[in-house]
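Take a look at this chain, tokens included, and explain the fold to me:
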Amino acid sequence: MSAFDFDLFVIGGGSGGVRAARMAAQRGARVALAEMLGPDGLGGTCVNVGCIPKKLYSYAAHYAAAFEESHGYGWEFPAPFPAAQGVLPGAVAGGPADQRVKPVLDWARLKANRAHEIARLNGVYDNLLRGSGVTVLNGFARIEGPNTVGLATLNADGSPGHQTFTAAHLLIATGGTPHVPHFTGREFVITSDAVFDLEPFPRRLLIVGGGYIACEFASIFNGLGAAVTQLYRGEQVLRGFDDEIRHFAAAEMVKSGIDLRLNADVVCVHQTDEGLRVDLEGGSQVLADAVLYATGRVPNVQGLGLDTVGVALGAKGEVRVDEHYRTNVPSIYAVGDVTGRVQLTPVALGEAMVVVDALFGPAAGKVQRSMGYDFIPTAVFTHPNIGTVGLTEAQARERHGDITVFRSEFKALRHTLSGSSERTLMKLIVDTASDRVVGLHMVGAEAGEIVQGFAVALKAGATKAVFDATIGIHPTAAEEFVTMRELVRR
């Protein structure tokens, strides 16, 4: 390997790329990582315009509901809040002292605080990489050969520069990018990359899409005070999730105030004096201050030079890899969303570790890792949250045939006094022959936190008998998963 500049050259500073670079360097490998946005972009989509800022905004949205729910627990404001500059939704600030006042959102402060936290995380990633001995490069990397990378940079005077590096192994970890279809008025819409810094706050927000990103932002901006309309061209949102979970979550979202329109799609968008006019199929129209397209993401491979070396791509532009994440070019690997597999940050991290162990050996005292795609838990941060692990009911019937379904729906203890009509749904799916729990699903507060723990049990092969023998923590919502006794269908 000494004939090359590096042992490993990583293209992309997202979760998978950073993990691979750092762990390989800790094994003693000479590693470089190229990120077009430099240190300010380290962490990729998840840190900068995905998981982290989205969850922060989800927390922000929950506070408005929490203020309202606090009245049922005896909390009242002694006097109206003073009006703040540019705040929403601007309930009755400055009104009579005996009038119940809603809190107001300082959108500018939320954005600034989020940006400060993301900058802090960028710095953490940069320090971790450099502290491990990784050479961090700022520029756009393009593959020029099986072992060669060209890096387009800017010189100190602003003129374009170019550097060339060689490496024994190249790792593509460039993630995905939002996709917006072509239609008249496409230039007026935004994607999730831009939604965190909208200015001004959109009093009327139209969201197009039915996946987890669309549903999450519908809940977030509805909670922050916007009037949200969500369009989805299919029969129900969250395709791929358990059907009962999909319908229940959608009903809760509608109950919270989201105008969810199914079997609906956009024809065109026009700028008018009243805002953006969105013409829909069937002739109806929606006026909005902003239109967010969340209709999916595509692999971020544009300009990487993959055709130069003949790296094989799939039908959707995804980099095709084998079980070891190696492309058809033996020196080039790929992990994360760019491969079009399971598009989750923890999955990219796991795949990165498989590559590092394969190339440079496992850490001392550890066995070489492999990656399994069964029982991967995930959460959707709608309001209420969704948490799920394992098979949907339809998948379980197709795979196992004879299954047993346990289901519980209830109002959480918290809402017996809060005044909220929010309900919780929990569901277990059991392979009847083996008694193994093969699917666990929840819609309710902190669903992701609850399901994470149960994911360990499902990964370990826990049976329904094991669930039944487990003592619950009372009073919690989570205990319902170990107290379900009455099957609802087979």
